[in-house]
Design goal:
Elements lengths: L6 E5 L4 H12 L4 E6 L11 E4 L5 H10 L5 E4 L16 H27 L4 E5 L12 H21 L5 E6 L18 H14 L3 E3 L2 H8 L4 H4 L1 H11 L6
């Protein structure tokens, strides 16, 4: 679909990758970009139209769909990462929060905006996923679980909305240079590069974006994941969490 003249909503558009998505849409000629954020005052770009939106609040999601009835592109970018392993975390609070934001929030937005997109000719949904959709770094295990669920959601929504002409795009990437990944000291992707790749996918009708070499390698290794992907993850975990002698 064409971005020129389109109307879009980006969740979590006040910073990081969401801000990059919003800017890339405008640079590509979008007519209107709504910034779905919990605190509208946090949107400082005067080109954006702030919309109060906590993706975990069904009432706010429904209100956003009613307010933004001209949307043709929905970018589900809002996310949470609580650095929560499955067993080592003191509680399951982090896991529940990640699933509420990364899975149920995305599901809620897709459900509310599906009829909006249909009325407006089909449009596109972009779901921001992760290389962690396919592999589980143990220190952030529950985050990976939420992204795996979101990948499954994306594939199912694509099938359900095909008949109404809605393009559904999954964007997978490794660590991106945003506040969410600030505690991780590795090479990171430029959010503007991820946004540009995503704009190209919208324009070309591409259903999957693999934003970096690491992500492409992880997907290619899925048939042999237990033999190739998990031994180094196990070694890293064991080094940081040595077994206590009895």
């Amino acid at each position: 679909m064409r971005i020129q003249g389109a109307v879009a909503l980006v969740t979590g558009a006040n910073r990081g990758l969401g801000r990059a998505f919003a800017s890339a849409l405008l640079d590509s000629g979008a007519r209107t970009v709504y910034a779905g954020v919990r605190d509208p005052s946090s949107v400082t770009d005067p080109r954006l139209f702030p919309v109060r939106l906590d993706v975990t609040d069904p009432g706010q999601v429904a209100a956003a769909a009613a307010q933004c009835g001209d949307v043709g592109i929905l970018i589900n970018n809002a996310g949470a990462m609580r650095a929560s392993p499955f067993i080592g975390a003191p509680t399951t609070d982090g896991a529940r929060n990640e699933m509420e934001v990364n899975y149920f929030g995305m599901l809620s937005l897709c459900r509310e905006f599906a009829p909006v997109l249909e009325r407006n000719g089909g449009g596109a949904i972009v779901n921001m996923l992760s290389a962690a959709s396919w592999v589980t770094p143990t220190a952030t295990g529950s985050y990976a679980a939420s992204k795996a669920a979101a990948w499954s959601l994306t594939n199912g929504v694509r099938v359900e909305l095909h008949s109404q002409g809605t393009l559904v795009i999954a964007v997978h990437a490794g660590f991106i240079d945003t506040e969410m990944a600030a505690r991780v000291h590795v090479a990171k992707l430029d959010p503007d590069d991820v946004a540009r790749l995503t704009m190209a996918a919208i324009e070309s009708g591409t259903e999957e974006v693999l934003a970096d070499d690491e992500t492409r390698a992880i997907k290619a290794a899925l048939p042999t994941a237990l033999e190739t992907l998990y031994p180094p993850i196990q070694a890293h975990w064991d080094e940081r969490h040595p077994r206590r002698s009895s």
